[in-house]
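Explain this one:

_____
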Amino acid sequence: MEKRNETIRQVVEEYGDTIYRLALHYVKSPADAEDVVQEVLLAFFTREIPEERRKAWLLRVTVNKSLDVLRKQRKHAPLDESIPDERGEKTGLAEELKELSPLDREIIYLFYFEGYTSKEIARLLRKTDGAVRKRLERAKKTLRQILENES
């Protein structure tokens, strides 16, 4: 029991903020994001997840629980107002990002905001690495075209 309590404490300390930020990205409400965090941690506590799969499992469950909240509310969550460019500076792209598919927005979020590689994103989303890289490439190309048309 003591080992389980230590594992729980470690998961909360190590991943709690990440789970909250990802949930907040989807649900856009701090109260709803906190509820999602509680649901994710409760799901984790009732299962034995190997340490090497823990972060991916927690993020996937966070996305699923966040989408459940959105479905219940019958509303769509807009993407964050900004996204880092190649130099790490924030740029306002909220309207442009809305033109991408939900999957492309999710890949952009995981790549730029969470710093995942295409291989890690592929595992999280249960896609092939090639599919994730291609979607990321197309999404960036689409965003470039949108921005050029606005200029």
In short: The chain has two domains: 2-73, 82-150. Confidence is low (pLDDT under 50) at residues 75-82, 84-90. The CA atoms of residues 10 and 31 lie 23 Å apart.
